[in-house]
Amino acid sequence: MPDVILKNLPFLLKGLWTTVELTLWTIIFGTILGAVLGTARFVRIPVLGVLSTVFVEFIRGTPLLVVLLMTYFALPALLGYKASAYGAALLGFVLFIGAYIAEDFRSGLRSVRPSLIQAALATGLTRWQVLRFIIVPQAIRSTIPSVFNQYVRLLKFTSVASIIGVTELTGAALLVNARDFHPVTLLATVAVTYLVLCYALSLVGRALYARLVVKT
Amino acid sequence: MSDAPTIQIRDLHKSYGVTPVLRGCSMNVSRGEVVVVCGPSGSGKSTLIKCVNGLEPYQSGSIKVEGIEVGAKETNLPQLRARIGMVFQHFELYPHMSVLDNIALAQVHVLKRPRREANERAQQLLARVGLADKHAAMPVDLSGGQQQRVAIARALALDPQAILFDEPTSALDPEMIHEVLQVMSELAKDGMTMVVVSHEMGFARRVADRVVFMDAGKIVEDASSGEFFSTPRTPRAAEFLSKILSH
Question: At B118, is the secondary structure helix, strand, or coil?
Answer without folding.
Answer: helix
